[in-house]
Structures are given as structure tokens and as C-alpha cells.
Design a protein that fits this description.
Elements lengths: L2 H16 L14 H11 L3 H4 L1 H9 L3 H25 L5 H9 L2 H30 L7 H15 L4 H31 L13 H4 L7 H7 L1 H8 L4 H4 L7 H9 L2 H19 L11 H8 L3 H35 L17 H11 L1 H8 L4 H32 L15 H19 L4 H24 L10
Helix pairs in contact: 2-9, 2-14, 5-12, 5-14, 5-15, 5-20, 5-21, 6-7, 6-20, 7-8, 7-17, 7-18, 7-19, 7-20, 7-22, 8-17, 8-19, 9-15, 9-17, 12-20, 16-17, 17-18, 20-21, 20-22, 21-22
Length: about 475
């Protein structure tokens, strides 16, 4: 993309913003600072932590804490790279828009459709987890719960973006309050000694039960796929750029909360739980938070936590429905998707794209019906590889943007990523290492089998689209 094209794009976006509440892509700028902050915080608190951590603990023991810490550092590098791009040009379809500008139209096509698929699959994952949580209280089929949740969340996404942000604010508030509460209770048990676990609770559990690496360093490395899945959705703040009231002020604040979010909600929570209850008590398929409260002799607390994690799963699915409609509209605006997806309701909701995505999420109901025990593992694997593609694109785009900005070809961002491009290169190497580990893990390997098939579908689709409409191979049309 030439400098004049970039200037035209930026001028068009600024002109649209100047109209008042309209965003640069025609959306309503209804998301305020507190809503963006809580969406950013709550987006990363979902099934990966509440359900997936059980499998990680059983596989790696206390060393899972180290896996979260190292992966968390990489996530911070990714988010700062995204922040630099967002301050350069805040747009709703950020990942695919940057891919078109810094890599090429085909990269934008692949990124847009892959990120859309990621959220569809993630929606299935979250509904699967929510259905599993329901069995804590009632012995009802998982597929039935999944069906009901999908329909209800689709209805919730027909509201305006302002109401969506308000709902997500309170969803996230519940999750954040619950985790902080759990940390405080565990701290009380460790210091005062109340509950059934009071006599045995000790930080020594982190190294006395077979050591910090009870199954070896190799098994800890193999948990990185689950750990990276837990962090998927932190980049959702990039999708909200076109609907934020003051993106250049709000988004940097949200991104800079990443380190303490990871330190408190992942590392802090796991340290406390594994200090109160030995890691040998946890197993795959059960929330470690629920198991911990049961071992403490606090069954009421376990029920409350189960309700909170149910809320977390439904909140993440709700965010998924939000983002899929926006990504489809971005593709359509750039002639890389059906034009019908460009239509907005009077309240600024991409109804057609959201409806189409919600319909595909119903596939999750069928997955629950066919494989109720394996559904979570299947969709987690595929969601991880498709979600990591967005991170790879963000990092490559940031490296190329920084090179052009340093040469004076593009304006410098007001929010430069520290240590870049070296930190971005390190993050890229780490992500590729995780992909290699996924190929070694027989449970995660299924996603790598699906990736070439998806790539072939996209390649053929782009070729056919370009023949029918040459504008699909051009840069951004905005």
C-alpha cells in the first residue's frame, strides 16, 4: 500500500469519526473506557483457565504455573505489537486490515476468514464447556444445554453495541470478583487455617508432591498448547477499535493491563489453589476451582464457582458472536465476502453476519451429541491453531510497519512496542515452537490435520473470487 493510499484511508476514517457517534466503519461508537477495560480483562478469563487448567495440572503438576508465566510474557509482546498497530490506524477489522496493508490482499482474505472461523469454533468450545458445567447440578444431555445456550446468546447479540458492552462489563465483573475472592479465601486458609484443608495447606505442596516438575520438563512443554488456548481472545480489544469512543486513549490502557491480569488471574490463582490442595487431586474434565472448594469442605463455594465459570463460558461465547459479525463485515467491505454481510441494523449491529455465525455454532450441538466426552479436546485443538494465526499476522505486520516507520515511509505510532522488533521475533519463534509441540501431541495433532484442508479451501476460494471480482485482490477499499 502506498503512502497516499494510507493517507486516504486515514482521512476517510477520521472524517467518519468526525460525524459524531459513527465509527470509521459505520459502527456506533458506544463502547466506553470501563467497558473496554472489562472486555479486555474478561476476554482472557474463560474455559482455558476454568476447565482446561484441570488437564494441564494433571499433566504438568505445579510447573504449569511456569508455563503460564512464560506464555504470558509472549502474550504481552503480542499485545504491545497490536497496540502499536492500533495507534497507527484503529479500525474494526484490525487483523485482516493490517494483513492487507503490510502483507497483501490474500493475507487479508486468509486472516479475516481464519479469525472468523476461530471465533465460530471457540463459540462451540465455550458452549461445550457451559453444557459440561450444567451437569454439576442436573443430569441433562450436554447437547440439549448447548442448543439452549446457543439460541439464547444469539438473541442477546441482537442488542446495540452499547448494551453489549454493558452486559460484557458485568459478565467480566462477576468473573474478576470471583477469582479475587477465591485467591483471598485460599490466602485465608494458608494463614489462618480454617476449613477442612486448613491443617494440610502449605506452599510446600508446590514442590513436595513429586517436585515442581513431577512428570518432567517435557510434559510441561506439552501443556503449552492448552496454555496458549487459555490466552486466546486477549486480542479481542483490536476488534472493538471501530466502536470505541476514544480508541487512542482507551486501547493502550487496556493493553497495558495484560501483565497484571496474567499475574493475578492465572499465576496468582494457580499458586494459591495448588498450595491449598495438592496437584494430585486434580484431573482433566473437571474445573480445578470447583475441585479445590470441594476438597476444602466448602460445597456451597463449589456451587458458586461452578456458576461463575458457567458465566465465563457464556460470556466468551457472547464475545465470539460479537466478533464474527464484525469480521464478516470487514471482509465484505473489501470485496472478499458476500455483500449482504455489509448491512447494519439501525443500532449498528451486523445482523446478517452474526446470524450466519450463530447458525454454524449450532454444529457444536451436534459435536456434543456425537462425542460428549471428547468434544472439548477436539475444538480446543482446532481453535488454538486458528487463533494463533491471528497472533502470527499481528507480529509480522508490526515488524513490517516498524521498518517502514523507521524509514520515514509511514508515521510513527504513539504507542511503540518496547524491544520491538526483537520481542516480536521472539514471540514468533515461540508460537512456531508451540505448533511443533502440537504436532508431537497426538491429542492436539488433529488441528494440524485440519489446517492444510482449511488452507486449501481458502486458496481455491480466493482464486475463484479473484477471477469473478478482480477488486478482491486489491488493497483496502475504505
Amino acid at each position: 500500500m502506498t503512502s497516499s493510499q494510507v493517507d486516504q484511508l486515514r482521512d476517510g476514517n477520521e472524517a467518519a469519526r468526525a460525524e459524531g457517534s459513527e465509527g470509521g466503519e459505520g459502527y456506533q461508537r458506544g463502547l466506553g473506557s470501563r467497558q473496554i477495560q472489562m472486555i479486555a480483562i474478561g476476554g482472557a478469563i474463560g474455559t482455558g483457565l476454568f476447565l482446561g487448567a484441570g488437564k494441564g495440572i494433571s499433566k504438568a503438576g505445579p510447573s504449569l504455573i511456569l508455563a503460564y508465566a512464560v506464555a504470558g510474557l509472549v502474550i504481552f509482546f503480542i499485545m504491545r505489537a497490536l497496540g502499536e498497530l492500533l495507534m497507527y490506524r484503529p479500525v474494526s477489522g484490525s487483523f485482516s486490515e493490517y494483513a492487507r496493508e503490510f502483507i497483501g490482499p490474500f493475507a487479508g482474505f486468509v486472516t479475516g476468514w481464519t479469525y472468523w472461523l476461530f471465533w465460530v469454533v471457540t463459540g462451540i468450545t465455550e458452549v461445550t464447556a457451559a453444557a459440561a458445567y450444567m451437569t454439576y447440578w442436573w443430569n441433562i444431555p450436554q447437547w440439549l444445554s448447548a442448543l439452549i445456550f446457543t439460541v439464547v446468546l444469539y438473541g442477546a447479540n441482537l442488542i446495540s453495541v452499547k448494551l453489549f458492552g454493558e452486559l460484557e462489563f458485568w459478565f467480566s465483573m462477576v468473573k474478576v470478583t470471583a477469582i479475587i475472592g477465591m485467591i483471598l479465601i485460599c490466602a485465608g486458609i494458608l494463614t489462618i487455617g480454617f476449613s477442612d484443608a486448613g491443617d494440610t495447606a502449605s506452599v510446600a505442596h508446590l514442590w513436595n508432591e513429586g517436585g515442581f516438575f513431577p512428570h518432567g520438563v517435557g510434559n510441561t512443554l506439552m501443556t503449552l498448547q492448552m496454555v496458549m488456548f487459555a490466552f486466546l481472545a486477549v486480542e479481542l480489544v483490536g476488534v472493538t477499535a471501530g466502536e470505541s469512543k476514544d480508541p487512542k486513549k482507551v486501547l493502550p490502557k487496556a493493553i497495558n493491563t495484560v501483565p497484571w491480569r496474567i499475574a493475578v488471574f492465572y499465576i496468582g490463582a494457580l499458586i494459591m489453589i495448588l498450595s491449598v490442595v495438592p496437584w494430585t487431586n486434580f484431573h482433566a474434565g473437571a474445573s480445578p476451582f470447583v475441585v479445590a472448594f470441594e476438597k476444602m469442605g466448602l460445597p456451597a463455594g463449589a456451587g458458586i464457582v461452578n456458576f461463575v465459570v458457567l458465566t465465563a463460558a457464556l460470556s466468551s461465547c457472547n464475545s465470539g458472536m460479537y466478533s464474527t459479525g464484525r469480521m464478516l463485515r470487514d471482509l465484505a467491505l473489501n470485496n472478499q465476502g458476500p455483500k449482504v454481510f455489509t448491512k447494519l441494523t439501525s443500532s449498528g449491529t451486523p445482523l446478517v453476519g452474526t446470524t450466519f455465525s450463530a447458525a454454524l455454532m449450532l454444529v457444536g450441538v451436534w459435536i456434543n451429541y456425537q462425542w460428549p466426552g471428547k468434544a472439548f479436546d477436539y475444538v480446543v485443538s482446532f481453535a488454538t491453531i486458528s487463533g494463533m494465526w491471528a497472533w502470527i499476522v499481528i507480529l509480522i505486520c508490526q515488524i513490517r510497519y516498524r521498518m517502514k516507520a523507521d524509514r520515514g515511509q509511514l508515521p510513527q505510532s504513539e504507542f511503540r512496542a518496547p524491544g520491538a522488533p526483537w520481542t516480536s521475533m521472539f514471540a514468533l519463534v515461540f508460537i512456531f515452537m508451540v505448533i511443533v509441540l502440537m504436532g508431537i501431541d497426538k491429542d492436539a495433532r488433529v488441528s494440524l490435520y485440519c489446517a492444510p484442508l482449511w488452507a486449501a479451501i481458502l486458496g481455491v476460494s480466493y482464486w475463484a473470487l479473484k477471477r469473478r471480482n478482480p477488486e478482491a485482490a486489491a488493497f483496502s477499499k475504505r
